[in-house]
Amino acid sequence: MNLKPRHIVLTSAFASALFWMPDDGKAAEWKVGMSAPQVKELQQLLKEKGFFTYPAATGYFGTITEQAVKAFQASVRLPVTGVVDDATYAKLKEAAARRTAEMKIGSRGNDVKVLQQNLKQLGYFKYPEITGYYGTITQDAVKRFQQNYGLPVTGIADARTVQSIQNEVMNRRPAKIAQEYVLAIGSQGAEVSKLQQNLKQLGYFTYPKITGYYGTVTADAVRQFQKRYSLPATGKADSQTLAKINEAVAGSKTPAPKAAIRLTIGSTGPEVKKVQTKLKQLGYFTHSEITGYYGSITAEAVKQFQKSAGIKATGVVDAETYERLMGQAPQKKLDAIALVADAAELLGKPYVWGGETPQVGFDCSGLIVYLFKKQGISLPRTVATIWNAGTPVSAPSVGDIVFFATSGSGPSHAGIYIGNQQFIHSGSSTGVTISSLNNSYWKVRYLGAKRY
């Protein structure tokens, strides 16, 4: 059968739509001059990532969209062409999918940094440093925003909240003109010299001379600054980057590139007192006085808190440690009668090394941690760290923890005092049982009692 070729006349609208259809599984390239609904979707994806800063998605691919695409490509290490090919579009969709996850207490990473930066710009996030950790300070900032904008006040940055925050940030930014002022590789002159001088003052431009030429050394310095301040790391000095550099040089709202909070041995002052007071409330700082001096006792208390909070135990109060510590709720008051009643129900449970639940069994510290947790009181996990966290008492009262040296000279076994010279504990040969402090074995090994 002989088929003759057909000649088809396309309307401009249909031709435009046909252009955007996949060709053998590959999307057409989107670039300057094109206008289509897909461009609107592209602009929205770029807006969600903070690259497209024009107030509204227009559907027209102009120079503002091109600059946004280039900035995004640089941030994900794609060739910086300003043209949206398959790889760029896939990365944008992948990034958008990642952003749908909720951010809440315990979340961390670049998305949290972007959230904190946006909340800081809107006046809700008051902490001096962008930490990337979603703690109670970030949660409170989100709650205040949600309350002011009629959203459910959950403190969780869900997709609706994040989008509302981004929209408000965009609404407050002035619209950019089509040809944005940008310094990039190849630029030269007085403005480049001024940029290099500012970057040198901030510690980013390390070349010995101010050259007035924008080369790879200047681009690298700009990129490092952009990363530090959660800007798109393009290596180009656009108006947003230049404004942020000027703020940093002027010492205004943007902090210098160093941790705002860093307390370590030798530190003194009101911040140390604040940390010691909080550690004492939580049962980690056992010194009788709040001294305002950061010595070895404070460092050890910080280490114990960091271990219990799942932070690297350095003994140094950095930004994350400070936020986690200040956001920790004070310990609840112990109900000794309820504690002993709960313990009595566990009599006979087997001893299991590492055990900390009734279903599995308990080791000695696992039993104590479990029972105190039911009271709303968090204790460190090992006998030695529980010993370090407590306040010594001359004679035990009901609910205090009694300690013994069963191997070596330090605390290696513990139980809960229940009165009448008796304590309940999980022994390796007995499981959960009641023993007497007057028993010859325990009497010679008794180290003392502590209160929590």
Protein traits:
452 residues, alpha+beta, six-stranded antiparallel β-sheet, 17 helices
Quick summary of this structure?
With 452 residues, the chain is of the alpha+beta class. The protein is 42% helix and 8% strand. The chain has helices at residues 12-19, 37-48, 63-75, 86-99, 110-121, 136-148, 159-172, 190-201, 216-228, 239-250, 270-281, 296-309, 319-326, 336-344, 364-374, 383-389, 440-445, and strands at residues 356-357, 361-362, 391-393, 401-404, 413-419, 422-427, 431-436, 446-451.
Write structural notes for this entry.
Helix content is 42%, strand content 8%. It has 452 residues and is of the alpha+beta class. The chain has a 6-stranded antiparallel beta sheet with strand order 3-8-4-5-6-7. A two-stranded antiparallel ribbon has the order 1-2. A hairpin with a 2-residue loop joins strand 5 (413-419) and strand 6 (422-427). Helix 5 (110-121) crosses helix 7 (159-172). The longest helix is centred in the first third of the chain and has 14 residues, at 86-99.
Secondary structure: elements and pairs:
Elements: H1 12-19, H2 37-48, H3 63-75, H4 86-99, H5 110-121, H6 136-148, H7 159-172, H8 190-201, H9 216-228, H10 239-250, H11 270-281, H12 296-309, H13 319-326, H14 336-344, E1 356-357, E2 361-362, H15 364-374, H16 383-389, E3 391-393, E4 401-404, E5 413-419, E6 422-427, E7 431-436, H17 440-445, E8 446-451
Helix pairs in contact: 2-4, 5-7, 8-10
Order of helices and strands: HHHHHHHHHHHHHHEEHHEEEEEHE
Strand content: 5-15%
Approximate helicity band: 40-55%
How far apart lie the N and C ends? 94 Å
The stretches of 5 or more residues where confidence is low (pLDDT under 50) are: 1-27, 174-180, 252-259
Assembly state of the chains shown: single chain
Overall geometric form:
elongated
Number of beta-strand segments:
8
**Largest sheet, strands/sense/barrel:** 6 strands, antiparallel
Spatial sequence of strands, sheet with the most strands = 3-8-4-5-6-7
Please state the CA-atom Rg, rounded to the nearest Å: 31 Å
Q: Which class of secondary structure composition applies to the elements? A: alpha+beta
Question: How many alpha or pi helices?
Answer: 17
User: What do the pLDDT scores average to?
Assistant: 81
